[in-house]
Specification:
Blueprint: H1 2-16, H2 22-27, H3 31-49, H4 60-63, H5 74-79
Helix pairs in contact: 1-3
Length: about 80
């Protein structure tokens, strides 16, 4: 939860930087680290949205096998 909250806060700063120029100076040094993390989060979210039915033998752990982070439930991620 903390990881998603932090990435969400950085994303909000990025969005607001289009209105407030001083935020560009805050975001710019970190953007090369943030973009891959945002993409990973979006990828994981998309995998959860299109997760196969529970009865077909594929588990959430299988979906996140390549990810370095695993999350507790589909319901948690879809609330973000």
């Amino acid at each position: 939860m903390l990881r998603l909250a932090i990435l969400s806060a950085w994303a909000e700063l990025q969005i607001q930087s289009t209105k407030w120029d001083y935020l560009v100076d805050i975001i710019a040094p970190h953007i090369s680290n943030l973009i891959p993390l945002w993409l990973e989060t979006l990828t994981d979210y998309a995998k959860l949205q299109y997760e196969p039915d529970v009865g077909d033998g594929v588990t959430l752990d299988d979906v996140f096998m390549d990810s370095q982070h695993s999350y507790s439930s589909k319901e948690f991620l879809t609330q973000v």
